[in-house]
Fold these 4 entries.
Entry 1:
Amino acid sequence: MLSASMKRAKTISITVAPELLAKAEETAAREERTVSELCAEALQRYVEDPEWEALLGRTRAAGKGLGVASEAEVERLSDEYRREKLIA
């Protein structure tokens, strides 16, 4: 039987790396769940975790101290770092 919240659920589309999707599929199969259920639970935990909010606050403050202006810049710097590691 569907819970009241699932009856009102909305469908979304996300993009993930193939390796992450494979791990999610393996985990879902092992737990006899769907990937959708696994992702919904992960998202629920992410948005409700007060420790995560505190961590985000600390890392954003540290980033500002280093001159990082946005999350997009973090992505850019991460991509650059990964490319440099592949070349090295």
Entry 2:
Amino acid sequence: MRNKIILLVLIIIFTMASCVPGTSTLTTTATTTTTPTPTITPTPAPQSLAEAPDLPTWVEEYVHAFGGMVTVNGAEMDADQLTTAIRQNPERFTQTKQVDGVKYSFFVVNDIPLGIRESQYITWQKVHLRDIVEIPGGIEYIGAEPRIEDNFFDELNEASSTVETSWAEIEPQRGQYNFTNFDIEIRMLKDHGVLIREQALLCPSSPTTLPDWLLNGDFSKSELEQILIDHITEVVKHGKELGVTEWDVVNEPYIPKDRENDIFYKTFGGYSYIDVAFTAARKADPEAKLIYNDIDNHTANGYLTPLTRETINRLRTETVVGDDGVERTVIDAVGIEGHLGDWMPVPDFTDVEVTLKSYGLPVIITEFDYNLVGLQGSDQEKFEKQADVYAKFLQAAINAGVTEYSFWSFYDKDNFLTDQGITNGDPGLFDKQCKPKMDYYAVLKVLYENIP
């Protein structure tokens, strides 16, 4: 019995000892975590020009502008033959430029860029005027009157609004403002990221831009002055809220025998109303770019060159102190229209360059065109002459330091001449089917050549 008790005690002691933490031996199986090998996606190689799917379209548009045949490297080719030549030897048609650390590859035919590929992109794209001017240096803004077509905003980064800013449109009754159409146009232009230049706050010699209540009001000088201040203040402040930063303040004022409908000139007894208009605009938006604009002032002996000089030399001495305490002159730039063609001869382009430099203010080409009315020769000869004029005027402006350049007619099918029933002027960069013309490629070539 005693032995059984001793055996039982030993079993109990052994069992308790086996339950003490840390006294048992555990067998474990190690778990190994395997890190997956990362997948490396290779950087796609840049697309070869020969592989660009739209290459035939770019070539066809170019060849079409030159009558269906072009001479390249001494050989005359149609669009299909040129496309084949490019695909066989794409390097021969490729040039590169590097600006501010960015490399640009260009598809070039006869010194005219037709395609572009920036270093951060792998595919070729059709080149547009806007693509060139948005490369730093040279012309910064290329624009036109925004008669909207699908490719307008592809080509241009500036728009000049006219109808929607006329006095008759905005203030049809005294003190009653209607900005409906103005707002629609401005918001549409802003959505496309273009610089907006409004033209014009006052076009005093154009009765169609002024409301009847103003033309027939028989106001005294003091009354008319207050009306002018009120209108410009209201419009500029409203435009500022929408993001308008440039204004043609006064456009084409009175000149004897030609523009005699200027009621402001008659009532004020001279041009002092121009000073009133600019002062009001500067007070309404101290930071806006304010422009005096006129025609035939691009040469030393231009009809309106003396009046332009007289006006800007007077305005540049006048200053306004803004709410921020900063004193500013009331004028920032002079606008040059440069309408050439049937009634204004092609100028000496050295004279143009010298004259633009002589104004002593930044110069903006606001309305350039060259119409074909009365020009002799075949259509092809006319378009060649037009292209030559477009190229040389643009180059003269660039030489003079111009950074904003606007065409007044972008399409042959719809422009200020067709508004007057003139259908043979063809002043645009695009023809009546909205295909690019010789002058378009002439402009493209000049812009390309002036990339720094």
Entry 3:
Amino acid sequence: MMAPPFTGVAAEPSGEEPNAEDPSAGAPVSSPSAPEASGSGVDFGVSDAPTTDVEVVCAAQSAASELRQVSLAFLFDVSGSMGSNNRMRFDTKWVPVVAATEAFFSEGDAAALSASLTFFPRPDSATRCTADAYLVPDVSETALPSPLFSEAIRGLQYSFGSNNWRMSTPTLPAYSGLAASLASAPSDALRAIVMVTDGVPEQCQGANDIQLVADAVRNSGIQTFVIGVANPPGDEVPNNLPNLDLVAQAGGTERAFIIATGNPAQTQAEFKAVIDDIRGISLACNMQIPLPPVGSVFVPEQVNVIYGSGGASDKRLSYDPECAVPDAWRYDDAANPSSIILCRESCERAQREVTASLKVEFGCERQGVPR
């Protein structure tokens, strides 16, 4: 299974004048009269305790900049085709996927994130095809790890052959309602949607075209990951997953992750691996470039990023626009940079280490990767 490549997190555009106290603002080209920036703790999402300020060296002034939190909004397909009265699907799809999902929400590895959970379809057949039915999640945004997600899944009271299973796959209204709820609740966190489903839309008249879903995803502007859960081998119902790539592409994530079923242990392992990949891709290891010292000029080729942790020696990270080497960083846009982005290995290390700190050098020869 090929996973989408790590692309980092793009900086969000801002039409306001940049300043050191506003981490959503872009970096200025120069700041001959900028006041000295006040320091603020860098929050790597793993502790409430403040960490060391981002420092500027090669100049005797400090600057404030923060890595941003990430919130994953899960849109989880609980339609009857995930198990219902088909013993093979229940044992090889529903059971291992639920086990892996519950583990993700409850394990300490997810401590850098927050998440919400929205089931679709809704239990009321009269409203399940309306976007308004999905404005309120089943589990609101919550810091991970948390037992609330497992409690919500178990609250469905799904078992083989029970009458609680919900029919239809109202993908378009479910996505539209979730996206609208995220848009109406502004947050400093970077948000992404993770859609888990075993098929394409059905049983909502006028909303069963997968292209309509892709259009809604593209128009939302929200990074969207898609996890497609296949039917087990030998199932009499053919898989209905290929077009999920359209949704993933519209969400900026290139292609859907397709999870094979048939072997429960393998399905659970694959699902966990996919969630780990998504977490690695979406972690907000970006920060706005701090204001350069008073009287100096920001020169992209004269910036270095130095990583420190506790009593360990500081390490200068390598600039690599392709993020092809360990211990590296890159700009969001090499031609017109506004953010510094830690590459995956550097990002994951920073997320694990509570005492992590960063220093930003201005006016120093940049350490890059030989080509």
Entry 4:
Amino acid sequence: MMKRCSGALRRLAAAGFVAALLMLAGAPDAAAQEALYSPAELSTLPKIAAPGKVKSLIERTYPPELRNRGIGGRVQVQFIVGADGKVEPASIKVMATTAPVLADAAVEVARMLEFNPGLKDGKAVRSQVLLPIVYSTN
């Protein structure tokens, strides 16, 4: 009887452990389950919702020590714009930069951007965006 009971307890404990792991992992978020489209697959590309805001964001994030020394550069960031027009922060990646010290500033700009989302067949969808951000003293 004791052997039978301890085996049942072990199975119950193992099942509880698996259930706990599943609860910790949580359900995959909705964004991860939605399809992701490249620009070539879209009928309308995502557009920055407030283009005037971009210049202000770039100026605000431009490291003063670089601006004062006249050092500019170009950073290409890639990220996902959700169907809601918001940039998915975890998706932001620096793809290329002429001045590595500007990479963090460009990532900060990307985080704060809002878009009119890309459309596929008239429906707002998640899409990949590659955006150049230029820091210039001019």
